[in-house]
Design a protein that fits this description.
Elements (H helix, E strand, L loop, with lengths): L9 E4 L6 H14 L10 E8 L4 E5 L12 H12 L5 E10 L2 E2 L8 H14 L4 E5 L4 E4 L2 H4 L10
Parallel strand pairs: 4-6
Antiparallel strand pairs: 1-7, 2-3, 2-4, 4-5, 6-7
The structure holds tetrahydrodeoxyuridine.
């Protein structure tokens, strides 16, 4: 028998400690919360994706009266990036949530389905995607989706 230890390196910092490109993607994620359509949960989520062509794509959660038909902000942004810029690689994704226009204190932790979609984007990119989960004060930086989804399933598993 043997055991494997998972080691996760997560940086926690505040906004003024970010690099310019990190600041830009976080700013875009905050702006994206304003386009959230969340009349049911009233939980507004914004996501922004930085592509290797320098373009930042924004997405927000889009809810539906038939609840499961809605989509999270992260997948809205990643699918839009894939649809509009199929040849671009995702470099970073930032996620933030707000309620009544105020950024939530707690970081917005992506759901399992969004982690899986991030994992696919990372596979497609061929290099680690940096994930920035933002709370009102703290920003958690994961240097790879692998940390959020260890042992994820991808093309090579088929
Ligand atoms: N939501 C996201 O958009 N991203 C997350 O990371 C967590 C949850 C959305 C889905 C739903 O519209 C609302 O937040 C409440 O779950």
């Amino acid at each position: 028998m043997k055991t494997l230890d998972l080691v996760a390196n997560i940086t926690i910092c505040c906004e003024n400690e970010l690099t310019e490109s990190q600041k830009n993607v976080v700013k875009a994620a905050k702006e994206a919360t304003l386009c959230s359509y969340a009349p049911y949960s009233k939980f507004n989520v914004g996501a922004a994706v930085l592509l290797d062509n320098g373009i930042i794509v924004k997405g927000s959660n889009q809810e539906n009266a038939a609840y499961p038909s809605g989509l999270c902000a992260e997948r809205t942004a990643l699918f839009y990036a894939g649809a509009a810029y199929p040849d671009a690689k995702v470099k970073k994704i930032a996620v933030v949530s707000s309620k009544n226009g105020i950024i939530n204190e707690k970081i917005c932790s992506p759901c399992g389905a969004c982690r899986q979609v991030m994992f696919e984007s990372q596979y497609r990119a061929g290099s680690p995607i940096e994930v920035l989960l933002c709370g009102a004060n703290d920003i958690y930086i994961f240097n790879s989706v692998d940390i959020l989804l260890p042992f994820g399933f991808d093309y090579d598993d088929l």
